[in-house]
């Protein structure tokens, strides 16, 4: 997937990477860490990480970077599913080049994520 990768493809955190990456392959080699879901690319970058983050209440790893008007449902529009399989060895390749961004079917993800958040952390309902 070529282009500007600046949002976390796992949790959808906007502008998570500065500078941005040219491809998912470059991101995987970076070992950069998302400030929201704490995914360390090259180690944790798989859909299971997202499921664990949701089960944990969608807590921000660096809460001081959480935008003031943050809404989970807006963030989830940036995730990439299916997330390409990554081999974490000396040479990393992405399989499943048909990865695409989710457009709409995030309602169940939003419900699951909201249900796992403490009531006082859900704003702007």
Provide a short characterization of the protein structure.
With 125 residues, the protein is an alpha+beta fold. It has helices spanning 24-30, 47-55, 72-75, 107-116, and strands at 2-5, 21-23, 80-81, 85-86, 94-95, 100-101.
Q: What does this protein look like?
A:
- The chain is of the alpha+beta class.
- It has helices at 24-30, 47-55, 72-75, 107-116, and strands at 2-5, 21-23, 80-81, 85-86, 94-95, 100-101.
- The chain has one domain.
- The longest helix has 10 residues, at 107-116.
- The radius of gyration is 14 Å and the shape is globular.
- The model is unreliable at 87-106 (pLDDT under 50).
Notable traits:
alpha+beta; 24% helix; 125 residues; two-stranded antiparallel ribbon; two-stranded antiparallel sheet
Q: How many structural domains can be distinguished in the coordinates?
A: 1
The global form is globular
Which range best describes the helical content: under 10%, 10-25%, 25-40%, 40-55%, 55-70% or over 70%?
10-25%
- Amino-to-carboxy terminus distance: 35 Å
Radius of gyration: 14 Å
Helices, by number, come to: 4
Oligomer: single chain
Please state how the strands of the largest beta sheet are arranged side by side. 1-2
Mean pLDDT: 74
Report the sheet with the most strands, covering strand number, pairing sense and barrel closure. Answer: 2 strands, antiparallel
Q: What is the total tally of β strands?
A: 6
Strand content: 5-15%
The stretches of 5 or more residues where confidence is low (pLDDT under 50) are 87-106
Supply the helix-strand structural class: alpha+beta
The H-and-E topology, N to C, reads as EEHHHEEEEH
